[in-house]
Specification:
disordered N terminus; Structural Genomics Hypothetical 15.5 Kd Protein In mrcA-pckA Intergenic Region, Chain A; 3 domains; Pseudouridine synthase; 17 strands; alpha+beta; 7 helices; five-stranded mixed beta sheet; 20% helix; ten-stranded mixed beta sheet
Length: 319
């Protein structure tokens, strides 16, 4: 008989099909986010692969990564090699610079080089470290994500109701997000709107990539970025990029596809140029910073605008 787990804890060995019943605390989450939290330590690429293949079932039916799970849903998990939790070191307790906090949510200033959650070779990220630092917190979840290499504003919810309301805003494009990006070359001032569809791909090693695709291509999603030149420097341009859609790696791919990759981008940038620049300047990270975020408060509806100054290394480089 296949094991059945009630709630949200999964452990064990490989080779077993498992059935998990979604609890009240997990209701409303996307299926991918639910599984990433449930299957801590399983590579993220593997989680997405079994969802795409249809091996994960919700109430005996196929489900996509963006399917919302409800309390009482039965989720079938295929055989997975789960991590040995006894061997995994605990996440270090860590607080991050606060930009805003109340009983519903908090916003932190995430440093570059820190993943938002563990997985895919990363033992722990912001969410695990914050939970460790706040053992009294009954609920703490990421509202959205930033790439590991990206610094800046990151929202977390302290209540399920806040999480659902804020994620609904992100999906409905009710938020305003501005990023500072330093790109190679002189950005043409006439190029103010980038409207290119994007599609996710996975290479043979399981590494995820995003590429520009024709709008009619299978799985392609329309993606819009607004670009404003802030400052022209010697060989580079500082941009403000406002994203109208929140696709994975959207800014990085849009700017690279326009012929001006982000300085230091390890995936979509110029590897040789980045390496030489890092050696000459000492700046060895990607210059992408989430500097402004506006949203409606999930409890009282007031508009909140948060800003994050450029990190010291970025400001020093520009100076």
């Amino acid at each position: 008989m296949e094991p059945r787990i009630i709630g949200g804890k999964v452990g064990g060995s490989a080779g077993e099909v498992r059935h998990v019943t979604v609890d009240a605390e997990s209701a409303g989450q996307r299926l991918d986010n639910y599984l990433l939290r449930l299957l801590k330590g399983v590579p993220k690429t593997h989680v997405y692969r079994v969802i795409r293949s249809g091996e994960v079932r919700v109430n005996k039916g196929r489900a996509g990564a963006d399917t919302r799970v409800a309390e009482g849903d039965e989720v079938r998990l295929p055989p997975l090699r789960l991590p040995d939790r006894t061997a995994a070191p605990p996440a270090p307790a860590r607080e991050f610079p606060l930009l805003f906090e109340d009983e519903h949510l908090l916003a932190i200033d995430k440093p570059a080089g820190v993943a938002v959650h563990g997985g895919s070779g990363v033992s722990s990220g912001v969410i695990e470290q914050l939970r460790r630092a706040r053992p009294q917190a009954r609920f703490l979840e990421l509202v959205h994500r930033l790439d590991k290499e990206t610094s800046g504003i990151l929202l977390l919810a302290k209540k399920r109701s806040a999480l659902v309301a804020l994620q609904d805003q992100f999906r409905a494009r009710g938020t305003h997000k501005v990023y500072a990006a330093l790109v190679w070359g002189a950005w043409p001032r006439s190029l103010k709107v980038i409207d290119l569809a994007l599609v996710k791909t996975t290479d043979a090693a399981g590494e995820r990539h995003v590429r520009v695709a024709p709008p009619a291509a299978e799985d392609a999603r329309r993606s819009i970025s607004l670009v404003r030149v802030v400052r022209t420097l010697d060989g580079t341009t500082l941009l403000d990029v406002t994203i109208k859609t929140g696709r994975t790696h959207q800014i990085r791919v849009h700017l690279a596809a326009s012929g001006h990759a982000i300085v230091g981008d390890p995936k979509y940038g110029d590897f040789a140029r980045n390496k030489a620049f890092a050696k000459a300047s000492g700046f060895a990270r990607m210059f992408l910073h989430a500097r402004e975020l506006a949203f409606d408060h999930p409890a009282d509806g007031r508009r909140i605008t948060l800003t994050s100054p450029l990190p010291a290394d970025c400001a020093t480089l520009l100076a």
